[in-house]
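Lab notebook page, bench 4
Experiment: in silico fold of construct C2
Operator: M.H.
Input chain length: 375 residues
Purpose: comparison with the prior construct
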Amino acid sequence: MTMWIIILWVSMAIVAAAIAYVSSRVALMLPTDWLGQWGFMKRVLICLGAVLLAGGLISACLDVVNAMVCVLYLALIWGATDFVFYLLNKAFDISVAYPYIGMVAIGLTLAALSVGWYLNHQAWVTHYTLITDKEVPPLKIAMFADVHLGTTFHADGFAKRLKKLQAQKPDIVFVVGDYVDDNTRREDMVKGTQALGQLKTKYGVYFVMGNHDKGYFHSAQRGFTKQDLIDTLEKAGVIVLQDEKVLVDDAFYIIGRQDASVQQEGRGHRLSMDDLTQDLDKNKYSIVLDHQPADFENQQGRADLVLSGHTHGGQLFPFNWVGRWIGANDSIYGHTRRKNTDFIVTSGLSSWAIQFKTGTKSEFVVIDILPAAQK
């Protein structure tokens, strides 16, 4: 909890600095004969009011979080634009009137956020092919995570995306956490789960919990409990695994882990990888579903494939690089291999609150597992 309080205060300080910077830049755009008698600082205060009004309008259309994202992006891009034109002036003696510099910055910001909106609200299919020496039949896996149902799209939008997944003709489907959110409506959860249960596969649909699936607030806020979610999924034919393992078709194992948040937040306990794998047949292929990519050290060498989400692929550039630098997770996005274990982290099908993806895109993941003999 202390960490989240610190993050909140740091974020507020950064946004406040961004608002102040943007206000000062807007003031520079005004012709000198406009409010010139007020002096620069008074003009900045007037522009501050205009920036806050614009932020309020964005909040009304989207929400406060996305308004903050818009302001941060405008400040970052405006700062970068100022720097580029400063270098052009120093290197080539190119002088551009500041109102034009400001218009370039605003235009670039609108373009970046428009692309980010598109990348978040569409769904791409990302393919991987993995080769194994183990005796497993060719297997096509479809995997997705971080639906956060009701944020980017509701149940009908989810159903349309599932049609795109179904077109891949997967043998099995994995839902790797954060299917719902605290703001997900019960009717969305029920209707979306009905669509999920209608997927046609050879081996079925498997589900593990993410940190948001459990809910952070009272269940009355979204109208259903964690157990209601589990019951609805199972009624639709979806197999929910909570620190459980199953042997499928006597060919491969699926190991579904409790989310790491049960320990991080003191909500309970989850089994270790040793506990989950100690009695497995090591000659059979094993797949771990673990929402957070934060236990690679204990998973490597103990499973053949580990699938995760949670990170949203870093969500926003350049903040996605910050996550890599500080090592918040073992991986932010994509495929890595450690000690004969393949790790794949998806950017997710949606996002928690932010309506833009500028450092990644929304996706399904399709993985072809092929025995070495058929390579």
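Observations: The chain has a mean pLDDT of 91. The chain has eleven helices and twelve strands.
Next step: discuss at group meeting.
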